[in-house]
Amino acid sequence: MKILIVGGVAGGMSAATRMRRLDEAAEIIVFERGHYVSFANCGLPYYVGGLIEDRSALLLQTPESLASRFRLDVRIDHEVIGIDRAARTVSVRDAVTGTVTTEGYDRLVLAAGATTRSVLPAGSDLPVHTLRTVDDVDQITALLTRATGPGPAATVSAVVIGAGFIGLEAVENLVLRGVQVTAVEFAGQVLGPLDPEMAAPVAAVLKAHGVDVRVDTSVRGASAGRVLLSDGTDVGADLIIEATGVLPDTSLAAAAGLRIGESGAIWVDDTQRTSDPLIYAVGDGAEKVDAISGGPTRIAMAGLANRHGRAAADSIADSAGDSAAGASGVAVAAEPAFGVAIVGVFGTTVAMVGWSERRLLASGRGHRVVHTHPSDHAGYYPGAEQMSVKLLVDAATDAILGAQIVGGHGVDKRIDVIATAMAGGLTASALSRLELAYAPQYGSAKDPINQLGYVADNLAAGTTRSLQWHELAAALAAGEVLVDVRTAGEFAAGSIPGAINVPLDELRDRFGDLPAGPLVVHCQVGQRGHTAARLLSQLGREVRNLDGGYKTWAAGAAALAASPRAAVASAPPVSPVVPTLSTERIVA
Description:
The protein is of the alpha/beta class. Helix content is 28%, strand content 23%.
């Protein structure tokens, strides 16, 4: 069997090496239009920042090493420019000589990846780069080296367009190189997939590290070392990095008449087969199935590319019916994608899985929300760090629909537990019953995951009723009374306008002093508010607990103050008061 693979790196090389392990006799040719067939693209920003010092560490495999170990014929600087499905051939252009040749195939795998999306107006005379290839980082690091030495230290400035995952990694690593950075984001917040109250602390961390964060802003032009912004200002820049996202590269597939899916990526079945049964597609260019909706989606993640490259090889081996080793592939239907993602920003970890509250509201799907602010490990053990956790739950089934976590240590562990629970079909309430590893330096006897389950279970059972931060203004306008059950000292340090302060430990004695009518109670993070709500409800009062307490409300208020477009839905203004968000995470 002759198998051609278009594109290397994650998806293409996973397909190639898995195919070789399944079939020693197969002829496998990989065409890579760039000069590097296997490199650590996720490590590129950290080479720019100097955290990865050895450039060769980014180069995982070479054509020579792949030929030696896997007997792969890897042809770098070769671009597939056309597919003749009837003849089962591809046209290949040698980027060095310009020669075009034809190569036949029995099976074809498309792993061309994605293309960058530029929003910069034409005419810029500043250096403009993306951050996707080894050539990109070579050019960026060379520019920074020229700009910063030798001689007296020079001030270097950069504009990063886009404050998503790659954009923030670029921002962080440029700052580590001593560059003054302006982050420009068209949306109303950084990290658009997050809900606004979860993104606000990330923006605070960026600003604490000297980053000029501009949301609701776009670039109008660039010349003479200045970048003109849509807010009427201009900022200095020695270079521009575009990190405005990617689009699936479907040009080759579309020209060949392959079906393009509703999401705009190449349509594939659950074994990565395209509309042509002899052609497969994997990686960022291939459509995925959304685990929450069951519909088509685009998710550009290295883990999925690797997984689907392997799946394509299994499917090809199964379709062949045999292999030299007698071990055909074990083709398994691809699992839907949850979109698990994580990024580090100046020591703060941001992770997410599934859908956001904003997306659930837009789709009209009934849901419940849980905010908690636990420590990553036991508070009495030194170095405990607080994290902010948000869980989205189906209102009818208690299924977990999504989660977002912002914090320090332990964020990665908790998002992976939640993602695994979602894949296994566990309900939100079932999180309370998970048995997780515990020692005081690693967690708590009531792990943050268990705590999410406890709150979710209380909501599902009707033990308590909650209110979201963006729903508070409407509740107060309707006549509900806000009761802050924190201590007098906490109340004096910062409070929600209109709240009356009755500390929890005084609530039983002062119960009769509370105004008549429905109540909303809150504390700092939600736990004391729950205790107060249980007490008041048993005393006959109608009461709801402000989910996540003052800390969540303050983050939401800060997000709306930065941009009204950051609203979860059509939330009314929360307050004219803009709380200051602390970037300190150490709580013990």
